[in-house]
Recover the amino acids of this structure.
């Protein structure tokens, strides 16, 4: 499928060329560029033409230690954005977080997503005592599903006609990764 093409960038074999750090308010414009990119947008629940102010608001609202929002950087360029965040405020679900991830298409297939995933899962496993990480992915997003399976996520169920994409209601998978906390 053409949307998985990574021909627009030479393949890099050394993921250590990229850095990972917490997202700052000053990254709002760059994060907007990643999330508004059409091949990213279609695989998320974002709507077209989101503003930098929208993303600034999300970053500002996510500064508590239980929210983790990371960017991957190639020198000064933000090439990926990922989050691990509580999905409600109940004390009964503090062992669980939702995960979201996106990479600029020019940098697909270069190990950026695995790098972000490792950082999020290290925090979940070793610092936040999060034993359940969950996510939702469109059922035909083979690239993302393969990445999630490689990182221990399993399909828990299918949500039929979950969201509108390109004018059609499409299915999504609920996936989760369960770990014992010692
Ligand atoms: C999914 C996404 C985060 C992966 O980012 P990435 O940095 O390219 O991840 P990787 O470097 O691990 O590359 C993905 C792997 O999938 C493989 N892949 C490519 N097309 C594939 C396909 N159709 N099916 C399965 N695997 C595929 C690649 O070969 C690569 O494997 P490799 O490392 O062995 O080469 C990125 O494509 C993206 O941002 N997509 C749009 C947003 C999105 O889907 N987010 C997730 C929503 S839940």
């Amino acid at each position: 499928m053409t949307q998985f093409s990574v021909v627009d960038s030479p393949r890099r074999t050394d993921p250590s060329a990229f850095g990972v750090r917490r997202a700052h308010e000053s990254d709002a414009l760059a994060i907007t560029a990643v999330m508004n990119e059409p091949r990213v947008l279609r695989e998320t629940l974002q709507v077209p033409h989101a503003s930098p102010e929208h993303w600034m608001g999300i970053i500002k609202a996510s500064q508590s230690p239980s929210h983790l929002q990371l960017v991957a950087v190639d020198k000064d360029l933000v090439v990926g954005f990922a989050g691990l965040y509580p999905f409600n405020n109940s004390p009964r679900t503090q062992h669980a977080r939702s995960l979201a991830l996106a990479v600029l298409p020019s940098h697909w297939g270069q190990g950026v997503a695995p790098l972000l995933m490792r950082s999020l899962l290290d925090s979940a496993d070793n610092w936040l005592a999060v034993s359940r990480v969950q996510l939702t992915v469109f059922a035909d997003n083979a690239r993302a599903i393969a990445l999630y399976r490689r990182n221990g996520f399993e399909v828990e169920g299918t949500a039929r006609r979950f969201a509108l994409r390109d004018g059609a209601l499409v299915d999504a998978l609920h996936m989760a990764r369960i770990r014992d906390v010692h």
Q: What stands out?
A: Residues 4, 40, 43-44, 101-103, 108-114, 135, 137, 141-144, 146-147 surround coenzyme A (CB under 6 Å).
